[in-house]
Amino acid sequence: MAKIVVALGGNAILSTDASASAQMQAVRNTAHELINFIKNGDQLIITHGNGPQVGNLLLQQMNSDSKSNPAMPLDTCGAMTQGSIGYWFENALNEELAENGIKRSVISIVTQTIVDETDPAFKSPSKPIGPFYTKEEADQMKSAHSDWELVEDSGRGYRRVVPSPKPLIINEYEAIQKVVEAGIIPIVSGGGGIPVVKQGNKLIGKEAVIDKDFSASKIAQLVNADQLIILTSVGGVFYNFGKPDQKEVKDVTASELQEHIDSHEFAAGSMLPKVQAAVDFVNETGNSAVIGALEDVAKIIQGSEGTKITAK
Q: Which positions are catalytic?
């Protein structure tokens, strides 16, 4: 039985319809793919993003903000979306397990990620959250919320960005390890985990969103995973992506991939955190990582799809 941490991108939960029913259906579709790991005999640890959900929830909070019903801060909204998305995944996976006659338990764990309060990311917001805006809409949002920073995101419009500090440790990793040892499938570190800093015996929430790929890599290291699999909307890693000479990479060493990272080959808002998280895991553990498409899970298990990153 291989112990595999799977990191799910936003396409696994939300496409264009932000309604609860549409997101639950997207999660069911994702669970239908993930069941292939269970049928293969693997032990899964599931992580997921929450950028669109936490951004939308923040807007709802602000639109109903009042003295008697004050808006919740970003760290609390992160916890709320962990709960809602975890609830959807628990039910969807339980349905798939039942349909396949597999007796396994699933649990969602609200997860806190400890960060360094002096992390320079707090002074340079970079993590997109919430919906896309046109230039005109972005200007209106900036006028209404002067403390917001909005940037153009990969040619798809403008989005709000917030600080994205690097994870130091997953606060609940020992509990997650025990859950895994019991053969239970945990859903953890939603949206990268709630960013907190340690002050004495207290954990204090911060206004930030941690990149889910870096948190997934950290969890994979802490629970001694055999493999980290990052599932996204593309089939793998490409050199010169979007250019006439683009090249799909099937097998690559961590050192070679690091060279391409250092030469600024990958887009900061999309592929860069994925390849860096994969390289970090491989370098720390010596085990392999894979980056591939959600719909290719069965072929990734067979080894015929996705980009595999190895130590040598």
A: 10-11, 127, 212, 274
- 19-23, 146-150, 197-201: lowest mean pLDDT where? 146-150
Closest CA to 54 of 140, 117, 131, 119: 131
User: Does residue 61 contact residue 77 with C-beta atoms inside 8 Å?
Assistant: yes
Whole-angstrom Cα Rg for the chain: 19
Beta bridge partners of 33: none
Distance CA 203, CA 195 (A): 9
DSSP state of 253: E
Distance from C-alpha of 37 to C-alpha of 17, rounded to nearest angstrom: 28
288: nearest Cα among 254, 255, 258:
254
Tokens of 210: 């941690």
Spatial distance between the Cα atoms of 52 and 46, rounded to a whole number of angstroms: 18
| Residue-wise pLDDT tens digits, 15-39 | 778 899 999 999 999 999 999 999 9
Q: What is the pLDDT of residue 12?
A: 83
Integer Cα distance of 166 and 221 in angstroms: 15
Cα gap 252→132, rounded to integer Å:
34
Please list, in sequence order, all residues whose beta carbon lies within 8 angstroms of the beta carbon of residue 189, skipping any fewer than 6 positions away: 47, 111, 113, 170, 212, 215, 216, 219
Mean pLDDT across 94-102: 98
Pair 58, 207: CB distance under 8 Å? no
For residue 119, the SS3 value is coil
Look at the alpha carbons of 215, 216, 218, 222 in this order and tell me if their dihedral is positive or negative.
positive
Residue 11: per-residue pLDDT? 67
HSE value, Cβ hemisphere, 13 Å, CA-based, for 36? 15
Are the beta carbons of 219 and 281 closer than 8 angstroms? no
